[in-house]
Amino acid sequence: MKKIFSVIALTLAMLFLFTACGNGDSDEGTKSDSGSDSNDKLTVNTTVYPLKSFTEQIGGKHVDVKSIYPAGTDLHTYDPSQKDIVNASKADLFIYTGDDLDPVAKKVADTIDNDDKKLSLQAGLDKKDLLKDEHHHDHEHGDDEHGHDHHEDADEEHNHDHHEDADEEHDHDHHEDADEEHDHEHEDGEGEEEHHHHHGLYDPHVWLDPKLDQQFAKNIKDELVEKDPDNKDYYEDNYKKLDKDLKDIDKKLKDVTDGKEDSKVYISHESIGYLADRYGFEQKGIQNMNAEDPSQKELTDIVKQIKDEDAKYILFEDNVENKVTDVIRDETDAEPLKFYNMESLTKEQENDDDLSFQKLMNKDIEALEKALSGDNK
């Protein structure tokens, strides 16, 4: 009798064990099938903030997006460790502007052997869409010479409406005379990036041009669809909303620059070349405004240049020291206006869940409109 009870007890114990294991497997399967597990999301690493914002807006709940740049990063001086580079390459997809635009991102891309896991947005552009980067190592010095010299051959045709008929096709015909020069310099200049304070061959600030952004957004959407075809309709719908916003930004910029051909906009660092080129105004840098800790002589020189130029407004970027803007207010008649170049976010901005490229760009448009009202020519 004892033997019978022992057999029954053993059988019940085994049944209980199998049932428990079965329930555990079922729970895991349910979690995976529901898509609620974060592992079901595409992991995406990006570089500058606009690319992160575009990817988040298009990918929504199906993506987990991070920027490889820490808060407050200056794209021109950021020097990641080898560990940073390796960690940045660990994602389903790495999105960056391009090898000729971001040498740091190129280092990350070079560590990714699988071409399907990286997206260079430059690859979707024609080289004539890109402006040469002429300040290289001396990005804090000599800026006052850096107007529209990079397109001297095209300046005669550089009227405010030079894009109106071609915008939808994105031709940029006004650069044709400069293409051969761009191509030759690209061939001769590769490998120079290490000697130029992390500048590539071309002006890196492509993300401030809403027409180029429309192409970037489409490329990002197409890549997400290719990686995750089951959610194609979701990505397409989100992309259409973003594309409409980018077209609205383009229209606003046309409106605020209308009649402002060849007007000068003074800025702490020449990051608005693509806007100046597309919408027909001239950017002019104020030397040393972006210096990390400007000396008294540098502050004196800043004040002198502003007075000599009779500048009414100065756009300044996030990384400009408060003491610089305070000196400008105290020692000149110019008004400093904050401008967001969006290379990276501040820690405060990173904690703002409602922040987007569109919100920052609309603030920039307001600042640009005011800067253009100074009628500096």
UniProtKB/TrEMBL annotation:
Q: Which UniProt keywords apply?
A: Signal, Transport
One function term, GO molecular function aspect: metal ion binding
Region of interest (Disordered), residue spans: 135-203
Q: Where is the composition biased (Basic and acidic residues)?
A: 135-187
Q: Which InterPro entries does this UniProt record tie to the protein?
A: AdhesinB, Bact_metal-bind_prot9, Lipoprotein_PsaA-like, ZnuA-like
Concerning Gene3D superfamilies, the annotation shows: Nitrogenase molybdenum iron protein domain
Record-level GO BP terms? cell adhesion; metal ion transport
Cited Pfam families: ZnuA (PF01297)
Show the stretches that span the lipid bilayer. Answer: none
Instruction: Kindly indicate where the leader peptide sits in this chain.
Output: 1-22
Alphabetized SUPFAM superfamilies for the sequence: Helical backbone' metal receptor
Q: Would you identify the family this protein belongs to, as annotated?
A: Belongs to the bacterial solute-binding protein 9 family.
Q: What is this protein called?
A: ABC transporter substrate-binding protein
What is the organism of origin for this protein?
Staphylococcus auricularis
